[in-house]
Design a protein that fits this description.
This protein has four helices and seven strands, in the order H-E-E-E-E-H-E-E-H-E-H. With 156 residues, the chain is α+β, with helices and mostly antiparallel strands.
Length: 156
């Protein structure tokens, strides 16, 4: 990690450490749960050495791309005040993401506002998207996986 990434990681960790919904996954990768949304926070490095903070909510999983979904995501992009909707073919994921500049210009208030906004947008949209296009909300997918693990552990 370069100096900008280290400074960014330090600010993220200091800002979120008292939040019980926060977990450090590995160096430069974190997750925060808010409502039914899980927001992944990733520190990225640009070619010029500047650090960026990418906040990505995996909103729905197991969705097949089709014309209706593509149009809806484009329409959502035209109406959102920040961030962007995206589709990841692997896993059939609908994502909402927003990236901010890290390093010396990043402050705790900007980080928290970004996380809150990304989580809020994802939390508000997940039920609508599942109803119209199928798939599962990330919260349901995580809970289902955890329950399966518990059953497997105690069934033996």
């Amino acid at each position: 990690m370069n100096d900008a990434q280290i400074l960014t990681a330090s600010l993220i960790e200091d800002t979120l450490q008292s939040n019980q919904a926060y977990k450090k996954i590995e160096e430069g990768l974190y997750v925060v749960k808010q409502g039914s949304a899980y927001v992944m926070i990733n520190i990225l490095l640009a070619d010029n050495g500047r650090a960026f903070v990418s906040c990505v909510a995996q909103v729905v999983a197991g969705v097949e791309m089709n014309g209706d979904l593509a149009v809806e995501l484009l329409e959502r992009n035209s109406k959102t005040r920040m961030g962007a909707w995206a589709y990841e073919r692997s896993g059939g994921l609908i994502l909402f993401r927003h990236t901010i500049l890290g390093g010396q210009t990043l402050d705790a208030a900007e980080l928290m506002a970004t996380l809150s906004d990304v989580a809020l947008v994802a939390d508000e949209a997940d039920d609508q998207l599942v109803e119209r296009h199928g798939g599962q909300r990330m919260k349901d997918l995580v809970e289902e996986s955890a329950l399966k693990k518990i059953v497997e552990t105690y069934a033996n």
